[in-house]
Amino acid sequence: MPHEVQVILKNSCYDCHSNETKLSWYDKIAPAYWLVARHVEDGRSGLNFSEWNQLSPADQKAKLWESVNQVPLSSYTLAHPKAKLSGHDIKVLKDYIWNLRVNNVQADSSKIKVLKNQSEELKKAEPAVTVPKALNGISYIADYKNWAVVSTTQRVDNGTMRIIYGNDIAVKAIKNKQISPWPDGSILAKAAYDEIEDSEGNISQGAFKQVEFMIKDHKKYKETNGWGFARFKTPQLVPYRKSADFTIECMCCHQPMEKNDHVFTLPIRQ
Fold first, then answer.
1. Are residues 255 and 156 in the same domain?
2. How does the average pLDDT of the chain come out, rounded?
3. Are the C-beta atoms of 212 and 222 separated by less than 8 Å?
4. 87 and 168 fall within a common domain
5. What is the DSSP letter of 139?
6. Is residue 75 part of a domain?
7. Contact by Cβ (8 Å): 150, 170
8. I need a labelling partner for 242 at 20 to 30 A (CA). Which of 115, 177, 198, 248 fits?
9. What confidence tens digit (pLDDT) does each residue in 90-141 have?
10. How many domains does the chain have?
11. Are 159 and 241 contained in the same domain?
């Protein structure tokens, strides 16, 4: 990373997101120490810059893309004002992350080949006997492909397109303009695919990457802002991460959208 970016990350992030934690004298006194220790433990589990090289380049970019929405917690910067990001700091980080975006290669033969191979494999695949579950107990919902498409979006950091589907309850809420908050029972599915761009700049759907679900139940999922999260990757639908605490990552990522009931992409309204 550029030196200016490194300096910002070390000043504002390393105390909770690396193995180079430097505690202030008042952080070492109980009960403050217990709170700080928990912050550091949670911070390292989500992102540890001391283990940065263990992440794939794609995961590195995804973590940076996610982190720009999660500047240091106000409860932390209140006691550690030097960690607070300035407007200039945020601009430096955003400019750096924007320069990491994936630029499509027109008629990319590698992506076309991946799509062709994936399509052939799916034709030969046996019907799934067991339905996978995320580690928080949420099952994969195969029927999402039959739901209405409510919006689309892109991730320029990894060159993917996202198609967002809504179940009947979600669609009814959209039509009645009752999505602030979304009613219990609403389910949003976000399927991610490679982008394939032709010689004229038109983008079409490439190989399947993953599908994510958001299930609204304000009581059952109270700890994660009323939403249950699940993610299944690759055509084998492998549940995301190796422990149920992946939902903390999901919740933190969606926290900046609190005013939209934690939903990033608002549905297209007719």
1. yes
2. 86
3. no
4. no
5. B
6. yes
7. yes
8. 115
9. 899 989 988 888 788 888 999 999 999 988 888 777 665 577 899 899 999 9
10. 2
11. yes
Determine the pLDDT at residue 126.
66
Q: Give the contacts of 147 (CB within 8 A, at least 6 positions apart).
A: 165, 166, 167, 168, 171, 189
Q: Could you list the residue range(s) of the whole structural domain that residue 185 is in?
A: 109-260
User: Same domain, yes or no, for 123 and 255?
Assistant: yes
248/241 Cα distance (integer angstroms): 12
Does residue 181 have a cis bond before it (omega within 30 degrees)? yes
Q: What would the two tokens of residue 58 be?
A: 């794609």
Give the domain CATH number at 230.
3.50.70.20
| Residue 213 one-letter amino acid | F
pTM: 0.75
How do residues 129-186 score in pLDDT, each as one tens digit?
A: 577 899 899 999 999 999 999 999 988 878 899 999 999 999 999 999 999 999 999 9
DSSP H or E stretch at residue 161: strand 160-166
Q: Are residues 50 and 117 in the same domain?
A: no
What is the rounded (10 degree) CA torsion for 98, 101, 106, 109?
170
Q: Which of 108, 62, 65 is nearest to 204 (CA)?
A: 108
Residues 19, 50: contact at Cβ < 8 Å? yes
- pLDDT reported for residue 189: 97
Domain termination residue (choose one: 63, 98, 133): 98
